[in-house]
Amino acid sequence: MVSGNSLIFLLAISSFLSVSCISEVASLCASGALCGGVGGSSSIPLFLLSTPSTPSLSTETYPGFTTTRVYGQPDFTSNTANNGGISATSANNPTGVALDSSGNVYITEFYNNRILRFPSGSTTADKVYGQAGSFTTNTANKGGSVNENTLYAPVHLSFDVSGGLYVADAYNDRALYFPPGSTTATKVFGQPNFNSNALVPGNGTNSNWGIWGIRAGNADDVYMTDYNNNRILYYPSGSSFATRIYGAGNESNLCSTVNASSICYPTDVVVD
Q1: Beta-carbon count within 10 A of 131 CB
Q2: Which of 18, 168, 187, 192 has the smallest number of Cβ neighbours within 10 A?
Q3: Residue 37: burial class (beta carbons within 10 Å; 0-12, 13-18, 19+)
Q4: Which parts of the chain are NHL repeats (predicted)?
Q5: How far is 245 from 235, CA to CA, in rounded Å?
Q6: Are strands 187-189 and 94-99 parallel, antiparallel or unpaired?
């Protein structure tokens, strides 16, 4: 169902402006699936990414909308990466945003190699993923070896119906699943284990070359975009192997022919 007073989140990558929250907006989305990674939320958000040609957010750019909150900056006129230093209120190249069923906001930060959780209504994070609980560090894989608690350039994220969190961990060439409330992943996709981040050769059902987009379905299944292999992978519930491939219709990474079955460098996916 579409809420008549939906929330809109606008993600300004080039200005490091993280997220603006806009309220009192008429219904804008045909379904929650078309509006970003929300699992069981009563508010239906719309996520919009800015481009380098539109580095800031304003009511002039989106007439009729009133911006009420900014994440990642102290005010609406700042755009410095990690303004004031890396902290629970800073941001550096935010790439994804999602709401959980309690209205908490989750934001992936590509260059800070982390995910921040903001309590509903707050612009100060109270939980961090990928940095061992520290709000003041941002090294890839926490400066060490890859494992179930680290991230390297996370992009998109999505909640499933039970509140579990899926994250596209792009530069580790994998996707992770975090159980509700936990910052330690219990499932990995695209790698044989949590301690590997090597490019898995080939274009098979257990390999990938840069997972960017990710979206949980309604039956504990998940869809992922395999960016450099020019395809989208479908994983059924409980499986770490894809059983369906969208793009070339087979295990091919060709991106030279444009037709009804081809996909070229997919960055995100939605589920209706």
Answers
A1: 24
A2: 192
A3: buried
A4: 92-121
A5: 9
A6: unpaired
Residue 1 has pLDDT above 90, yes or no: no
Token duo for residue 5? 């007073």
- From residue 108, give the alpha-carbon distance in Å to each of 92, 128, 162, 172, 272: 9, 10, 20, 15, 23
Segment 247-255 shows an average pLDDT of: 58
Per residue in 9-59, pLDDT (tens digit) is 555 555 555 554 443 332 232 333 333 443 333 344 443 433 333 333 333
Label residue 59 exposed, middle or buried (CB < 10 Å: 0-12, 13-18, 19+). Answer: exposed
Question: What CA–CA distances, in Å, run from 43 to 32, 214, 220?
Answer: 9, 20, 21
pLDDT in tens, 191-221: 999 999 988 766 777 778 888 999 998 888 9
The answer to whether residue 243 sits within a structural domain is yes
State the burial class of residue 5 (Cβ atoms within 10 Å of its Cβ: 0-12, 13-18, 19+). exposed
CA atoms of 73 and 75, how far apart (whole Å)? 5
Our count of domains for the chain comes to 1
256 domain residue, yes or no: yes
Residue 150 sits in a domain of what CATH number? 2.120.10.30
The answer, yes or no, to whether residue 236 has pLDDT greater than 90, is: yes
225 located within any domain: yes
DSSP state of 150: B
Of 13, 27, 148, the closest CA to residue 91 belongs to 13
At 248, list the tokens: 């070339």
Dihedral angle sign, alpha carbons of residues 43, 94, 114, 194 = positive
In a domain, 217, yes or no: yes
